Amino acid sequence: MQTQKLDVHEQPSEDGALAQTAISRLRQLSMKLAMAEVDISVFDAMQPLEEEWRALERDNLQSLHQSYDWCAAWVNAFQRPLTILKGTYAGQAAFILPVEIVKSRGLAVAKFIAADHSNINTGLFSEGFAETGGTIDPDDFAGRLRQALKGRADLLLLQNIPLEWRGRQSPLAGLPMVQNQNHAYQLPFLSTFEETLKQLNAKNRRKKFRVQSKRLEAAGGFEYLVPETPEEQHGLLDTFFRLKSARFASLGLPDVFADKETQAFLHGLIDKLDDANRYFGLQMHVLRLKGEHQGRVAAISGVSRKGDHIICQFGAIDEELVPDASPGEFLYWQSISGLHDKGIALFDFGLGDQTYKRSWAPVETAHYDVVLPVSPLGVAAGAAHRIVTRGKAHIKARPKLYKFAQSIRAQIG
Fold this sequence. Notes:
This protein has helices at residues 14-36, 50-57, 68-78, 127-130, 138-149, 193-197, 202-218, 230-251, 260-270, 327-338, 355-360, 376-396, 399-412, and strands at residues 39-43, 84-89, 92-97, 99-104, 107-112, 124-125, 155-161, 164-165, 168-169, 177-188, 222-225, 279-289, 297-306, 309-317, 346-351, 363-373. By secondary structure, the protein is an alpha+beta fold.
């Protein structure tokens, strides 16, 4: 059916407006009826859901962080109790929300698996269910989720969800939410690296690259590597832990990668990859020096891939080596240019507002947290989360105040 464009001077007829309103109401009613037929069940293990889970995650717009292999690596390392929510409609899986229970001070919070190390969360939805995003009855959906979690959790806290992701509205968008204090930053890939650079200040970036190259050559040269063997990949991850630990110590901040469970989780991700290289849980990229610093790592990063989406999970530099060459930013140039012509559409720098991200990423995506109380204790905890999150957002929106807060944090460790 062809659609005619409406001239800017024309007004839709009264009959046409009424027809559109009727269609809209019918769609909303249809979705409400469909929600009434969605059965939500709870699973305390991943394995019974594996086949359906992997079928849902094939959708390119579902986040890497809800993929089966990503979640399995975390569950194997942390062994937290699971409360995975599965929605079934007409005998088919409509959605899976991979949730674990995190307990603290008598409070049980249902969160996305591996939420502390996730840059974007979407949940897993069948394509048909996902396309209904804006027409789901939010009160009905919230009530069904509460009922499923009753006696298992006090609060459902699903963090870092974009309300719209690459043109698709989230089916979670109607649930009670608060905007997260952190945004994410992305660089769309165009047909060539040169075309991609045109989205940025290409002239200034090329000049900076030439300066960095000359400084690295003056220091003895460099090589950019993405090692293929698992042994090399695991070794580089251990190098990252060492460099990041030194960085956190210099800032007086706690090392979020120090615990054995987190390290086991990340090592587990290195072994999660497919033969076509369209999915890998974690892949280490490295800038290694030559000359007098032969073999030493100047900069290192870990990236993940699902379909046409690359996510940079973390990075670190050796601050004793060639600091004037900005080796971390130089490594991004190498990685981004090297990933062209490999079926990538989006390079994601992940959460957190940092200068280098803004210099590389013309797209900024706001994230939101679902805050859905299940018990009276959850009501208080949800209110506290909203207050704290809004306070952090207020501080981060004011550079001087944020800098002061960071200095206080460093002083108290």
